[in-house]
Amino acid sequence: MKIVVLAGGLSPERNVSLSSGCKVCAALRERGHEAALIDMYLGAQQAPERLFSAPIPEELTRIGRQAPDLEAVKASRVGEGDGQFGPGVLALCRMADAVFLALHGACGEDGRVQAALDLLGIPYTGAGHLGSAIAMDKDLTKKLVAPLGVATPKWELVRYGLEDIPALTERLEPPCVVKPVASGSSIGVSIVRERDALSAALTDGLAFGGVCVVEQYIPGREIQVGILEDKALPSIEIIPREGFYDYENKYQPGAAEEITPAPIPAEWEKRLGEAALTVFRALDLSVYSRADFIVAEDGTPWFLEINTLPGMTPTSLLPQEAAAVGIGYGELCERIIEASLSARKAGK
Question: Containing domain of residue 167, as a range?
Answer without folding.
Answer: 155-216
